[in-house]
Design goal:
The chain is built from 1 helix and no strands. With about 45 residues, the chain is mainly alpha-helical. Keywords: Membrane, Transmembrane, Transmembrane helix.
């Protein structure tokens, strides 16, 4: 019983980390796209 609880908890932790990683990845992607767009506009002027 204890082993099942531990494995379930570790699985939930991995899931939480994965979801957090997805959120961080989206934020980084938005920042990178914004920077590229900003630099492109600056260069085109």
């Amino acid at each position: 019983m204890m082993l099942m609880m531990v494995s379930l908890t570790s699985c939930e932790v991995v899931g939480a980390i994965f979801e957090g990683g997805v959120v961080v990845g989206i934020i980084i992607a938005v920042i990178v796209i914004g920077l590229i767009f900003y630099l492109f506009r600056k260069m085109s002027k």
